[in-house]
Specification:
Strand content: 5-15%
Strand order of the largest sheet: 1-2-3-4-5-6-7-8
Enzyme class: transferase
Structural class: alpha/beta
InterPro entries: Pantoate_hydroxy_MeTrfase (IPR003700), Pyrv/PenolPyrv_kinase-like_dom (IPR015813), Pyrv_kinase-like_dom_sf (IPR040442)
Mean pLDDT: 98
Order of helices and strands: HEHEHHEHEHEHHEHEEHHH
Largest sheet: 8 strands, parallel, barrel
CATH superfamily of the largest domain: Phosphoenolpyruvate-binding domains
Cofactor: Mg(2+)
Number of strands: 8
CATH class of the largest domain: Alpha Beta
Function: Catalyzes the reversible reaction in which hydroxymethyl group from 5,10-methylenetetrahydrofolate is transferred onto alpha-ketoisovalerate to form ketopantoate.
Number of helices: 12
Radius of gyration: 22 Å
Bound molecules: 3-methyl-2-oxobutanoic acid
CATH architecture of the largest domain: Alpha-Beta Barrel
Distance between the termini: 59 Å
Keywords: Cytoplasm, Magnesium, Metal-binding, Methyltransferase, Pantothenate biosynthesis, Transferase
């Protein structure tokens, strides 16, 4: 069954946890979708895990559209949420609506996600008014890495925690259907989750959010440049891949690959004409 924003709403009402993962291509989206995930995010984390950058800031709208198109073809049931990259919504409400619209029209997303609180409420309201579902994103919002002075856990003081709670309420009031809470203390995430009627999706925000999201390369053990504290590696696919690739290399080198069963045939009569 196709997950929609109504699935997200009902899950919060029923106290059922929501699961989300990122994906950036067709094959991976298909595997994740067929596993029964609620939502797939084409995250601007692709700047780091696909492009190899140090942060997410260089990601463009065109790149998110390109990857959304691929994910869309592989994911039949998950709600598809596309990230709005840095500076694709900060300039004006008009810019935000037009760019969110491109993610829907050209990429095929079902919803968009953008980072920020009070500073982007006008944009959230304008996008929602254009009939595009919005997922908010608060806490350690990676597009603010320079403003934060690094990737730092947010909401650790009374003042900053209160601001996160206020921002979450503003985001709900502006019409968002859900909010990602990233890199904040679990107790603060719980307070936010209890303060809003839309589902919170946590990453590094403890177990009391309404759902969880992880970057798939992190949870499958495929990205080891750094492994944040909040990541659980459910498998070590990176080493399985290395092992398989090493076997391939040695079989190519010793001539045991390809075998007869991997090769195409030509009729003897046709072959003889070539000599
Ligand atoms: O870009 C991304 O993948 C994200 C998630 C980590 C929430 O924003």
């Amino acid at each position: 069954m196709k997950n929609t924003i109504l699935t997200f709403k009902k899950a919060k009402e029923d106290g059922k946890k929501l699961s989300m993962l990122t994906a950036y291509d067709y094959s991976m989206a298909k595997i994740i979708d067929e596993s029964g995930i609620n939502g797939i995010l084409i995250g601007d984390s692709l700047g780091m895990v696909v492009k190899g950058d140090e942060d997410t800031l260089s990601v463009t709208l065109e790149e998110i559209i390109y990857h959304t198109k691929a994910v869309k073809k592989g994911a039949k049931n998950a709600l598809i949420v596309s990230d709005m990259p840095f500076l694709s919504y900060h300039v004006s409400k008009e810019q935000a609506v037009l760019n969110a619209g491109r993610l829907i029209k050209e990429g095929g997303a079902n919803a968009v996600k953008l980072e920020g609180g009070a500073n982007v409420i006008g944009q959230i309201r304008a996008i929602v008014n254009a009939q595009i579902p919005v997922m908010g994103h608060l806490g350690l919002t990676p597009q603010s890495v320079n403003a934060f002075g690094g990737f730092r856990v947010q909401g650790k003081s009374e003042e900053t925690a209160k601001k996160l709670i206020e921002d979450a309420k503003l985001i709900e009031d502006a019409g968002a259907f859900s909010i990602v809470l990233e890199g904040i203390p679990a107790k603060v995430a719980q307070l936010i989750t209890d303060s809003v009627s839309i589902p919170t999706i946590g990453i590094g925000a403890g177990a009391n959010c309404d759902g969880q999201i992880l970057v798939y390369q992190d949870m499958l053990g495929m990205f080891n440049d750094f492994v944040p504290k909040f990541v659980k590696q459910y498998a070590n696919i990176g080493s399985v891949m290395t092992e398989a690739i090493c076997s391939y290399i040695s079989e190519v080198e010793n001539g045991s690959f390809p075998e007869e069963k991997h090769t195409y045939k030509i009729d003897e009569s046709e072959l003889n004409k070539l000599y």
